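Kindly inspect this chain:
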Amino acid sequence: MKPTKKTARVAGLMFLLMVVSGLFAELFFRQKLFTADAAQTITNILQNTMLFRAGILSDIIMSLSYLLTAVMLYKLLRTVNEDKARLMVLFAAAGSVILMVSVLGEYMPLVFATTQPGALSASQLAELSAFSFSAYNNGYMIGQVFFALWVLPLGQLICRSKFIPKVFGILFIIETVGGLLSVAAHFLLGNATIASLCLVPGMVAEFSFLFYLLIAGINEKKLTAVQA
């Protein structure tokens, strides 16, 4: 199967769905409901239950679209190097599974918020909610290892493809370094600010690439020249 603009644009749509669902979950769900005050977080969840459920669903969609993006990019780039394309999907699948499992920790605060105090007091349930969300955050950062690694073979494939601008490949290789440094900053330094700053190159790479896929697809003239 040769690369086509249709495949590129479907990959771009999957990429866009991943980004949009991820941004919704972060900006309108986590940042709105979760606070440093465990009791206030419980109150926020109870007052915004539908938003909470929508945020969980959004994270599930993000995880699935993340994997589907890798599958579509595999179809687009497999002719460049089959082994690297398979490795890209393998890393993406690992990251997707870790994220899906971590979402359980993100969901549990709703369970604790709606549990009637009995053997555990309301304050204890609130603390359990905070611990559960902390487990989600750390699980997400473990998944970040594979989020960083899957774009390394992607970057290498793009650099060798000829029909996608090499600059995107370079950006993804830089994203790999930034993503791994983010994990190190999180677990070694415990510094969320540094960890977030390390992810900025990845945001630039992903946004620019997804819009390229949606608008341009691939350079068919160069593809034809390569295959000639």
